[in-house]
Write a structure and sequence with these properties.
The complex is a heterodimer.
Chain A lengths: L3 E4 L2 E4 L5 E7 L5 E7 L5 E7 L6 E2 L7 E3 L5 E6 L8 E8 L7 E2 L3 E5 L1
Parallel strand pairs in A: 2-11
Antiparallel strand pairs in A: 1-3, 3-8, 4-5, 4-9, 5-6, 7-8, 9-10, 9-11
Chain B lengths: L8 E5 L4 E6 L7 E8 L6 E6 L4 E2 L4 E4 L5 E6 L8 E9 L14 E6 L1
Classes of the chains: A mainly beta, B mainly beta.
Chain lengths: 112, 113
């Protein structure tokens, strides 16, 4: 049971480039989330999904898009990367009911 | 969501119990208390949650006061691997059965040998 797997773990982008971060969970969880964490700060919610085929905006959605075509995968896209998007990105999932989140190990993204 | 207040940092001796306080004086009747921790450079890890009663699992115990305005997370025998930032979060479970956690600054716990 791998839990929540994020790929890639590290990436350096040039300003204006695009990329997709993949989050995969093998726990059959309904809910999935993308957070970003900047140095010395807490986590901020970017987008989330309450089930396959659904997505919703979080606190800081600008500059990002998401898709949940399959229940086990939640993709985060950056269409035109900006230095302000340099951050550590965490994916999380949870089942229905009153349970805690399971987080991935993070993707460290640097935009130069 | 109710606001939580935690000390910025605390030290603990290895092998001793670590007691982490959290104040949530504006908590409402249907809000749960959750604890997570984040070890340096890793993703946050769920520890425990509770509503009214004290809870215990393999990682920790959660003590919630009778008026629910504060709680304490207890790590019974702290080890060096418990050094982390600990987050106390209060959250309501919405009718839609979805919730979004807001992580604040947390308490930086340093376990010393």
């Amino acid at each position: 049971n791998a839990g929540v797997t994020q790929t890639p773990k590290f990436r350096v982008l040039k300003t204006g480039q695009s990329m997709t971060l993949l989050c995969a969970q093998d726990m059959n969880h309904e809910y999935m989330y993308w957070y970003r964490q900047d140095p010395g700060m807490g986590l901020r919610l970017i987008h989330y999904s309450v089930g396959e085929g659904t997505t919703a905006k979080g606190e800081v959605p600008d500059g990002y898009n998401v898709s949940r075509l399959k229940k086990q995968n939640f993709l985060l896209g950056l269409e035109s990367a900006a230095p302000s998007q340099t951050s550590v990105y965490f994916c999380a999932s949870r089942p229905t009911g009153i349970y805690g989140y399971t987080f991935g190990s993070g993707t460290r993204l640097t935009v130069v | 969501d109710a606001k939580t207040t935690q000390p910025t940092s605390m030290d603990c001796a290895e092998g001793r119990a670590a007691n982490l306080p959290c104040n949530h004086s504006t908590i409402s009747g249907n809000e749960y208390v959750y604890w997570y921790r984040q070890i340096h450079s890793q993703g946050p890890q769920y520890i425990i949650h509770g509503l009214k009663n004290n809870e215990t699992n393999e990682m920790a115990s959660l003590i919630i006061t009778e008026d629910r305005k504060s709680s304490t997370l207890i790590l019974p025998h702290a080890t060096l691997r418990d050094t982390a930032v600990y987050y106390c979060i209060v959250r309501e479970h919405l009718i839609s059965n979805d919730y979004k956690l807001s992580f604040g600054a947390g308490t930086t716990v340093t376990v010393r040998a």
